[in-house]
Amino acid sequence: AVEANDTCANGFPADFVWGLGTAAYQIEGGWNATNRSPSIWDVFSHTKGAVAGGDTGDVADDVIHRWRDDIALMSELGLKHYRFSLSWSRMMSWDGHSMVPNEPGIAWYSDFLDGLLEAGITAHVTLYHWDLPQALHEHRGGWHTPDNERILTEFEAYATLAFERLGSRVATWFTFNEPWTFTVSGYSAGNHAPGCVPAQSGRGPCAGGDVTPYVVSTNVLNAHARAVAVYRTRFAATLGGRISITLNCEFARPLTNSAADAAAAERALQFWLGWWLEPLLSGDYPAAMRRNVGERLPSFSPEQRELLIGSIDLLGINHYSTHMVRDVADGERGDASSGWEADQHVVATFGAGWPQAASPWQRSYPAGLRGLLNWVAARYKGDIYVTENGWSCNSFTAAAAAADQEQLDYYTGYTEQVRLALVEDGVPVRGYFGWSLLDNFEWADGYSKRFGLYYVNYTTQQRTPKKAAAWWKETRSAC
Ligand code: GBH
């Protein structure tokens, strides 16, 4: 129970972490500033037909040049915690054999971190928010090559460089953001970089069929574990920060009260979140996946298991929406969807009457976040942080955005469910990061979708606060 005198007017403990997030490729721009080299997202966004409107991240929010103003914007909001990611392709360059430090890029992040520090803003930094250096994808087997020791070594070197050069100013490290999303979208659906799809369609340089997402997940989990081991053995004691990973999951509710649908909802959560969480806790993929995926699911060696188990100091959870899930009998689907999609044996829909966001995949169902947090807390006993939650706005002009009530309703509804999970259910949720500080490059949707607390005019780069920004300042920044 929380002592009354430690509770803020918003109903949360005084030490609850309130922050906002962004990611490098979505906001930075400066595609070749600081001697940056291409990532898979540069190549993908410049591929005809890959991104809505032909949009690219070349300029994005131009934060690479406007960062001082944007830190001032954060201060204006009273922000005390900021979550952002490093661009591997800015931190390092390809020398024809491996990635080596890129001093101008490192200096940019170093200055930025100093700026945050001066503004009293704590930094929470993600190493990998989907932007693999193109050279590692092309010449070193990327994430899609089975048992790819070369990518593990490269990631370990990158993480070490980041800890060494930036770690004194970073409170929390996240190795990967949403491995589920970049694995399924990038290596199965093909609508994200690097655009790989199952082999039978003949598209993509890394088409591997329905085993590829599981190959990718195994490499990514092993890379995570390596980076964590480096941080813990060489840096944690002196730097005092914590390290983890950010996993995304929509909540799953059974469509009917049948036992089969209850099992299907549980299975969906295992395929979505258990896929990543279970190896971090027990060193292996969930039983439901072993059962349905069979021999296509790689194994971890005893050494890999040892590194994986307990390799998070806390857990970051990104959450946007909820699905109603029903069971699917063997063979019922009969479609050509990816292995991961079909392997679950579920069909997901939305509940009737849930408000629709601009992004087709998102509807508002606030109670789903409380349900998810409880599901996670039943399995993981450490601190939980909601590292992303936000609304794809239905307003598309600065004036409409400034008056956007739906986004505000989403934030009030969802944060209230976080409060209930904490205060009523005892879930150890310690922080909440809204997505996002600014409208930005929304991946395959380009600039057509807007999640910012600030509206961005991409012609003038002017930032305009939305209604939720004022709410944030009054009720989240203030205790
Ligand atoms: C996060 O992904 C990202 O971390 C962030 O970069 C992004 O800007 C933000 O959220 C908003 O999207 O089209 O039905 O196949 C969100 C998780 C998972 C949401 C995949 C879209 C596609 C569903 N995403 N999902 S569908």
Automatic annotation (TrEMBL):
GO MF annotation list: beta-glucosidase activity
Domain of life of the organism encoding this protein: Eukaryota
Protein's UniProt keywords contain DNA-binding: no
UniProt xrefs under InterPro entries: GH, GH_1_N_CS, Glyco_hydro_1
Pfam family, one: Glyco_hydro_1
Keywords carried by this UniProt record: Glycosidase, Hydrolase, Membrane, Transmembrane, Transmembrane helix
SUPFAM superfamilies reported for this sequence: (Trans)glycosidases (SSF51445)
Annotated GO biological process: carbohydrate metabolic process
Similarity comment: family membership: Belongs to the glycosyl hydrolase 1 family.
PANTHER family: GLYCOSYL HYDROLASE (PTHR10353), LP05116P (PTHR10353:SF36)
Protein name: Beta-glucosidase
Species per Swiss-Prot/TrEMBL record: Emiliania huxleyi (strain CCMP1516)
